[in-house]
Design a protein that fits this description.
The structure is a homodimer. By secondary structure, chain A is of the alpha+beta class. In chain A, helix 1 packs antiparallel against helix 4. Chain A has a three-stranded antiparallel beta sheet. The longest helix of chain A has about 30 residues. Chain A is built from five helices and three strands; from the N terminus they run H-H-E-H-H-E-E-H. Chain A binds a DNA duplex through helix 4.
DNA sequence: AATTTATTTAACCAATCGGTTGAATATTTT
DNA sequence: AAAATATTCAACCGATTGGTTAAATAAATT
């Protein structure tokens, strides 16, 4: 899961699409409009986001409505938190070391 | 920056290396030990992490000491927060809509 | 029924990926 | 000086990436 989520977020076009979908759901055409690339390319980006479960598509007539799904980002948040825990523990150790050294 | 950070984190070996380095700095050999892949492969992973500025290497005698660097993760955290803000705004709208509907 | 609109699929491309093996480099130990 | 240790570099591999264009599919409009 994290592999596909991170991979999906490792591209600025996809991050930008996701930010826009965070604000408002949109059709594929609307999503593609600001980018200087083919519709097929955007369609591929959407597929990557969809596989990562960061968006869902619902067919509405002849167009698709795309929505963001926050859920996979919880796992990213957990990862960051894990790193943070260890990182701050390390900083504390360093702090103790300095305090200890001063004492002598 | 985010491109390289996310790309670096989109691989479970690299995430695992980073977690271990979060706890304790280690040499390349120590880092490589638990993985069933060549040292050269691990060396490449370390280069990816280094390019993303998630680790630094310092030459100590004939070996290298690798340390984690948290800083790039701040940007990831900001990204997640951005998504969160919009996501929760959307949830609020939905909430208002439901409340509104009930009222009628 | 024919046309337009919305989107995907397929085939292709060069670049990058994650891995390999074998040789090269640098340092320490003997 | 020779041997051992720590690590990287270079060349190679097949798979995947992010893009293209052209054709295919599906639904709405005329």
């Amino acid at each position: 899961m994290l592999d596909s989520t991170m991979h999906a977020l490792a591209d600025s076009t996809r991050r930008s699409i996701l930010l826009r979908l965070g604000k408002k759901e949109q059709s594929v055409n609307e999503i593609a409009e600001p980018y200087e690339m083919s519709l097929a390319a955007v369609s591929k980006h959407l597929k990557v986001l969809e596989k990562a479960n960061l968006i869902t598509k619902e067919k509405k007539g002849r167009s698709y409505t795309c929505r963001m799904n926050y859920e996979p980002l919880n796992e990213v948040q957990e990862l960051i938190n894990q790193y943070k825990v260890f990182w701050e523990a390390r900083l504390d150790e360093l702090d103790n070391f300095i305090t200890q050294t001063k004492k002598d």
